[in-house]
Amino acid sequence: MASHQVTLKGPGVIEEICLGIIIGLFVTTVWKKKQWDMKKRTTGFNDSLNKGEISLVLQE
Hints:
Layout: H1 13-51
């Protein structure tokens, strides 16, 4: 009976875990910066609205 030996090629388990962590941190950082930018825009708009610098006109 012949025994077959499987050779695994490519990154190891530890390398895959590290790569997953790095990609996850990068995506999280990009998402968080986008959220901060949206919050800054919303806060700026609300401040301008409260100061009376801008106004809203509703169309009927």
